Amino acid sequence: MSQGVDEQPTRLVVGISGATGIxxxxxxxxxxxxxxxxxxxxxxxxxxQTRQYETELSAKDLAAMADVVYRPSDIGAAIxxxxxxxxxxxxxxxxxxxxxxxxxxxxxxxLTRAADVTLKERRRLVxxxxxxxxxxxxxxxxxxxxxxxxIVMPPVPAFYLRPGSIDELxxxxxxxxxDLLGIDVPDMPRWGE
Length: 193
Fold this sequence. Notes:
Rossmann fold; flavin prenyltransferase activity; six-stranded parallel beta sheet; alpha/beta; Flavin prenyltransferase UbiX; globular; 6 strands; flavoprotein; Flavoprotein
């Protein structure tokens, strides 16, 4: 996304919840920075626990990847207000608990409140839902979010690119998610180009 001389930088809210796949959220922060997008990060306690299991990053390391970081309990933060303009919100990864809270407007923490605000302001909300197999309850929550204008994007790997590593699979998925938010990741290969 480009900006004019007098415009504020593009802002993206990034939520990280407790599902496996924190690599998606980490890469989203890295790609957004590369694209010149200002990131506003909120990580749930379960997301922090997953960070410990899946990465060598400390909480401080993860926070340093974002421009602004919020506590999940800070429901009065800027990203909880519709007057705080953003390009939208990406929840990567998105747990079923977080999906359900968003689907039924249960803004019990800052991540789910910010997602609710994103939907009510008719901004893009992209959820990288990480669960399999799916129950009928999961599918109904996905339907509810979709009917409200959110985008449910399970991080399903694309093998047609013939990836040589897990990083390449993660990069492709995150670039596609950012595309849905109108954020172009420089130097990412595209089909047919």
